[in-house]
Amino acid sequence: MTKVIGLTGGIASGKSTISNIFKEVGWPVIDADQTARQVVMPGSLGLAQIVSRFGSQVLQPDGTLDRAALGSMVFDDPKSLSDLDQIEHPLIMAAIDKQLASFKKQGLPVVVLDVPLLFETGMDQECDLTVLAGVDRKTQLERLMKRDHCTKAAALKRINAQMPLEEKMRRADVIIDNNGSLAQTRLQVARLVERVSQQK
After folding, report:
1. If I label 25, which of 4, 51, 58, 124 is the partner at 20 to 30 A Cα–Cα?
2. Per-residue pLDDT tens over the stretch 48-73
3. In which order are the strands placed within the sheet that holds 174-177?
4. 160 exposed, middle or buried (CB, 10 Å; 0-12, 13-18, 19+)?
């Protein structure tokens, strides 16, 4: 019986760090962001549908998706954003389901679903346990400004566009406190891995 661990977090909350630690201990990770890129590769149905809806201006000269151009078209336009979600979401979900089914067929004991919008998309229903990368607003803001070289106003806009981290904390089964050092995060993840492994 494969245990499915759902991993999520807000932007710049350190979710990728936790995901990488899971990989180090041998837990396979299905990365929703990576899957989202795969379903819009050149020649894919996803890219064809996006071009059909938004026009060829969303393509780079080499035929790949220009995410910056697409982002600028949909970010402040709820209708366009909804249209994009309706194209991408079913394709991403189908690809994730296919990967998950493959891992389950192999009889792997644990699989991690790394999904930024785990609760928003209802994918937490697929999970036996949900894990949140928790971080306070001040640390999140500082990390995002540093990571993306953006202003405080731009960073706040991106943070506020997401489900509040407090709401995610209420829904999560386990919260990894990601405000401290990498060593502190590793210790918390190690405890979680041990706990899950003992439940087999």
Report:
1. 124
2. 999 999 999 999 999 999 998 998 89
3. 29-31, 110-114, 3-9, 129-134, 174-177
4. exposed
Q: Which residues are annotated as a binding site?
A: 12-17
Question: CA 199, CA 110: separation in Å to the nearest integer?
Answer: 11
Q: What percent of the chain has pLDDT over 70?
A: 100
Q: Which residues pair with 31 in a beta bridge?
A: 114
The pair of three-digit structure tokens given for residue 36, joined into one six-digit string: 């989202």
Q: Where are the beta strands (DSSP E) in 66-173?
A: 110-114, 129-134
Going by the annotation, the residues of the binding site for ATP are: 12-17
pLDDT in tens, 82-131: 999 999 999 999 999 999 999 999 999 999 999 999 999 899 999 999 99
Report the C-alpha gap between 155 and 136 in whole angstroms.
Answer: 14
CA distances from 150 to 25, 29, 102, 153, 158 (A): 34, 29, 40, 8, 10
